Amino acid sequence: MHDELKTSYRSIIEAVGEDPNREGLLDTPKRAAKAMEYLTKGYRQTLEEITNNAVFSTDADDMVVIQDIELYSMCEHHLLPFVGRCHIAYIPNGKVLGLSKFARIVDMYARRFQIQEQLTHQIAKAVEEVIGAKGVGVIVEAKHMCMMMRGVEKQNSQMRTSVMLGSFRNDSKTRNEFLMLIKR
Ligand SMILES: [Zn+2]
Fold first, then answer.
1. How close is the Cα of 141 to the center of ligand 1, in Å?
2. If pLDDT is split at 50, 70 and 90, which confidence band does 153 have?
3. Does the residue 175 lie in any domain?
4. Residues spanned by the domain of 79
5. Residue 2: which region, alpha, beta or left (left: phi > 0; alpha: psi -120 to 50)?
6. Cβ(13)–Cβ(27) under 8 Å?
7. Ligand 1 center to residue 51 CA distance, Å?
8. Do 172 and 115 lie in a common domain?
9. Considering only CA atoms, which of 135, 136, 154 is closest in space to residue 145?
10. Which of these, 135, 111, 140, 106, lies nearest to 123 by C-alpha position?
11. What was the pLDDT predicted at 117?
């Protein structure tokens, strides 16, 4: 994959009219390939391996909220970054998941080519699958470089997507509690 990416980046540099042999650009295909490998490493991870050994038993059935998980992804339409935050809440059903694993779940799906709606859905489904929660709520707020740097060039618009599963979908009290808890 690395060599293929390197060759492709060299072609891109030439295609925009630059000289890939210019000193400042000489190692760029290599560096860009490495960066792209990192930014897409979610394709080479599985839910099972990243949540391994971090599911614990519990009697509690109170809402757990993890707020402001940083999120860096790339839109699949322009391959430009979108950047924001993710909030996750769930009602346990006998099992909880170690805190750091939520960040890993977010990263695994974010480090793929994405649209924000799908990313939000995948995160919610993953939490539901791993711990069998009674309900899961996920909200993603992000700014898209494809809107800010090109196209309509709107700098301050933010996209907000939410997915509510189980009790978060069926019970407005649960949903509202989540929304109130993440309010600033
Ligand atoms: Zn885009």
1. 15
2. confident
3. yes
4. 49-182
5. alpha
6. no
7. 30
8. yes
9. 154
10. 106
11. 97
Residues 35 and 108 both lie in one domain: no
Q: Write the pLDDT tens digit of every residue in 108-142.
A: 999 999 999 999 999 999 999 999 999 999 999 99
pTM of the model: 0.94
Instruction: Examine the domain organization and report whether 7 and 76 are in the same domain.
Output: no
Determine the distance separating the centroid of ligand 1 and the alpha carbon of 150, expressed in angstroms: 9
Residue 155's pLDDT is 75
SS3 8: helix
Domains in the chain, number = 2
The CATH number that applies at residue 7 is: 1.10.286.10
Distance 144 CA to ligand 1 centre (A): 7
| Residue 79 Cα to ligand 1 middle (Å) | 7
Confidence bin at 151 (pLDDT 50/70/90): confident
Distance 80 CA to ligand 1 centre (A): 6
| Whether residues 98 and 178 fall in one domain | yes
* 36, two tokens: 């792209």
Q: Are residues 115 and 177 in the same domain?
A: yes
Span from the CA of 29 to the centroid of ligand 1 (angstroms): 23
